[in-house]
Amino acid sequence: MRDHLRFYRHRWFKAWIAMIVLSFSLIAVMQAAGNEALLPAAFFYGAAAGPVALLLATHDRTQIGVSVPAMTLMGMFLFGGGVALLLGGCLDSLFISPKDDVSILRVGWIEESAKLVPPLAVALTGRHLTKAAGVALGLSCATGFAIMESMAYAWKNVAGEGGVVGAGTILFLRGLTTPFSHLVWTGLICAVAFGTWRTRGRVVVTLPVVAAFVTAAVLHSLNDGLLVLDIPRPVRLLFLVVAVVSYWLFHRATRDLKPPVVPDQVPSHA
């Protein structure tokens, strides 16, 4: 408990603060100097702050980052996240209607399916078929997806009435929420799926895998519905409950992932 209360000492918190400060500093300089070339960097750091903080916190707790080669994780972040966003964007345009508010409840099923495609493609090759690797791949893909989606929202706000400051505020708020949404939903699915596939030795569809996907999709859709649908403001605050439940499920699904034990070095005697 004492360690939890001293969260400000952890790497994830320091990285989050540094990236938020850098984002707002870039926006401030852009406003003062009128140099709009700084906007992409400001939006990137603001969008990445929350996801990167969760990645650091999860790695420090589980050491999943060493379960997959760094270049593979980088590829999953850059290309896996991009492919997921491409698939999600195409399917959203087909099944989500601006005239039908309730159609927002389909988003969770669409985007969780899209984010699962890149890690599934790796799993089908038979490589990195471990639970730790699956969580690392899933979080990397979801991070790329979440960052690019947040930047898209920021650019949309700039084009609207919010302006640059409004876009920065949106990025800050999404930085607080995306770690407890996109990342943990995909991380939950991959934890259960890759854990099952490691035991079976191949990719199979089982009841636990389906249950994990359905749980993540329902939480995703419920979160979006609470934030978008025309409902009383107090009810909207239930999205915080969704965030807590989402992270709790992810943490529970990954609590068996422990850092590798390094044996104490025994001093040699002459």
TrEMBL record:
At the top level, the lineage of the source is Bacteria
Q: Does the keyword Heme apply?
A: no
Q: Does the keyword Transmembrane helix apply?
A: yes
Q: Which residues cross the membrane?
A: 12-32, 38-58, 70-96, 180-197, 204-222, 234-250
Stored Pfam families:
PrsW-protease (PF13367)
Q: Which UniProt keywords apply?
A: Membrane, Transmembrane, Transmembrane helix
Kindly give the InterPro entries that the UniProt entry links to this protein: PrsW
Know the name of this protein? PrsW family intramembrane metalloprotease
